[in-house]
Known about the structure:
The complex is a heterodimer of chains A (453) and B (457). Chain A is mainly alpha-helical. Chain A is 66% helix and 5% strand. Chain A is built from 17 helices and three strands. Chain A has helices at residues 2-58, 92-107, 111-122, 131-135, 143-152, 169-176, 192-203, 214-217, 231-262, 267-281, 284-298, 306-331, 334-342, 347-375, 379-383, 404-412, 417-449, and strands at 63-72, 160-166, 207-211. In chain A, strands 2-1-3 form a three-stranded antiparallel beta sheet. In chain A, helix 9 packs parallel to helix 12, helix 12 (306-331) crosses helix 14 and helix 16 (404-412) packs antiparallel against helix 17 (417-449). Chain A starts with a helix and ends with a helix. By secondary structure, chain B is mostly helical. Chain B folds into two domains: 2-154, no CATH class; 226-456, Orthogonal Bundle (MetI-like fold). The radius of gyration of chain B is 31 Å and the shape is flat. Chains A and B meet through helix 1, helix 9, helix 10, helix 11 and helix 12 of A and helix 2, helix 6, helix 8, helix 9 and helix 10 of B.
Amino acid sequence: MTVATDIAATGFESTDKVRASLARRHAAEKRFRLIGLVAILLGLGFVAILFASILAKGLPAFWQSNIRLTINLDPAIIKISPPPQQQEGQSNAAHQAELLAWRGELASLNWGRLIENALIAELPSDAAQRRRDVSRLVTSGERFKLRDLVAANPNLIGSTVDVDLLADANVDVWVKGNIDRTLPDAQLPLNPVQRNYVAVLQEKGLLVQRFASGLFVNVDSRSSLASAGLAGAFIGSLYMMLIVIVLAVPVGVAAAVYLEEFATKNRLTDLIEININNLAAVPSIVFGLLGAAVFINWLRLPLSAPLVGGLVLTLMTLPTIIIATRATLRAIPPSIRQAAIGLGASRVQTITHHLLPLAIPGILTGAIIGVAQALGETAPLLLIGMSAFVASVPVTPLDQSTALPVQIYLWQGNELRNFFEARTSAAIIVLLALMVMLNGLAIFLRRRFEKRW
Amino acid sequence: MSSFWLIVVVLAVMGFAYQFGATKSRKVARSGARLHSLPTHYGVLLALWCGVPALAVLLLFAVFEGNVIRAIVASGLPDEIRALPADQLSAILNRIHSIATGFGVAGEPETFEVQAAERMATLASIGLLARIAAMAVAAVLGLAFVLRRFGPQLRARNEVERGVQALLIFCSAVAIFTTVGIVLSMLSEAIRFFSFVHPFDFFFGTVWNPRFATVGAGGGGGYGLLPLLWGTVLISFIAMLVAVPVGLMTAIYMAEYASPHFRSFAKPVLEVLAGIPTIVYGFFALTVVGPFFASIGAMIGVEVRATSALTAGVVMGIMIIPFVSSLSDDIITQVPRSMRDGSLGLGATHSETIKRVVLPAALPGIVGAFLLAVSRAVGETMIVVLAAGNAPVLQINPLQAISTVTVTIVNQLTGDIDFTSPQSLVAFALGLTLFTITLGLNIVALYIVRKYREQYE
């Protein structure tokens, strides 16, 4: 009897204790949950800030200041004979040589003078004495636009043409307000006279913002910064992606098929598995060192060639593709294999006729994700020489080239920070857009073709 | 490009061989004999025996021809040139190569260079002819080997499948080759580096200043690893300080609290962070985070550099968040339902269950995930190149610029790569160090994670 009351008493006591602590415990529960939510919101916030800052910086760079000018192709400056015509009986080679000489002559003409004259016509009267200041309003590469215009149609000489010419990078920075306008004169890239000219051009409506198509069709440039573009980097990256697809996908799929369908549990298989898992976690820069030592130093392949970059990226992407393909193959139910083998197919026939066709969506998804990963990789490319300035579009995979992420790296280090911060952000937007498209494609393929067994 | 066209030719010949084999076996079949395999198998067998030996020969030539020619040309150079140190000799050979390919060199080439270039060009054309001849011989021998046995009794399918399996094994062994290649190439170059600088000076040196060390070969403590290693450790530590709490709490919320709807939205968005190229993070750190920290520092009166260990570490932490959270998420969801139910049934609140039951049970796996994240942070390059400020000094203040192993590898190997000077070779010694560290971390982490999985499977 006493024992029972004792138990009851202690029981009540501890129930009270529990009750008294409940409020505290529930508060702790709420706190914990809140911390979790805050952590996620922090993560999502980082994503938002990252994208917002890059978009805010980069989007304006897709429009660039152009100066609309009426250019008089003055025969007094463009002193050149009409282009040579092929004479009767003249060999093709001789004609080519003549044509080349004519082009050379054309290129050596003072095209800048035409632009200056056109500008002076629009600017206040003192501009004629300030040709130096005037000539720096239009970026230097635009001379070649006029040259190409005339080379394509020599009849234009003597007439006037209306063209939009890219303004100098400093003008673009000034117009967009990407520079602190209250800085002392010595620190501003445009002198007061030039700033005045820019204001005059703006007032006349001649300074217009145009879509910066040069960003996509031009190659990188050091002399004419405003026309620096991504064309070379695009093609370089494209070559590397093609090499990765051609090499990494077949090899990766073959490796995955072996490991999933043939390999018995033995030393070799274990060794391969350990190696694949490890390679997936090896820092990318180590692959760059491998490329420098093996492909550049030993095999003597050229520096900064997309071929070498593609090979290095292939080795880097292999584990991704192998792991994705293995997961897909593993998901195919054994009944398919048993049915094929039961009907007399060999193992290879089972794989080529049944398993691989079923696994294609999964393989494609893995391959695309691997390629997207390779597209954004920078560090290993720097080690195989891709930090060099290249102002041409690579024709073959053995030519010098850059890649999109490398171009971003090079641009962010450019001295004209005010201009290139925006231009770099624009390049980043282009790179991210490509990656989003690739990943979107992967998601689409997975949703559309994925089989649930 | 000649190799490219040779490959095209080989592929075309393989196509013909396939056709030939298939047609021939059909003819045999029509004559009444019962074939062992399908005609396509005979075709494939013929194509394989024709193409694979030829391609193997091509590969051998591609790997060895260049170096053999260089060695022959070098042996024919005047004695005083051959007595030059390895790096100068290699530069001269490169010049000769440029002359031989018709690319030309700056300035007037010397007589011996022109002669050597002519010899090199001759050797190259001999090499090309030899390559084509060897490939043709290999292809014909392969064809003959099959054709001699050709007939209805030839077990074509079995042979083809054995070939396919060998090919598959070769493809999976690429992973081994890559690892071996990494280890061998870095070891050999690192050993060459250690012939300039004593390993003790490298591993325990506290001064990193490679420029002056060239004066006397190997000179003193210019190649000390410790400042770089310290930078790596400091930045990784800061990164983990950011990534571990945020990543772990994210994983807990996702696994335990989030509704499926919220989860299906938040998880992919967070994983976007994992897919962004690191160069983008670097640029973000350089242009947004760094100036932000610097202005906060200015506001409270502390000197904070825009490019500092703090900037690089925080941004790297952001980069690693999804890595930590998705790995931990997987591990937390693997904890058996019964353990949670037991705890909840005894009256524990949800958070108490997580803290006292789920997390302790998942701890080994989570530690493994953290180690993998650390190895990520240690090997990360572009963020640090852009945002850490590149100052290889031993100092504790995270608000100042610092340098890491990876940054130094990039600095030493960009521009002209010269494989004979310690300035370039040191990159391989650094790479070897980096590889060893990350390998160790990965092996331990993978071991822990695997053991953990087995525990609950």
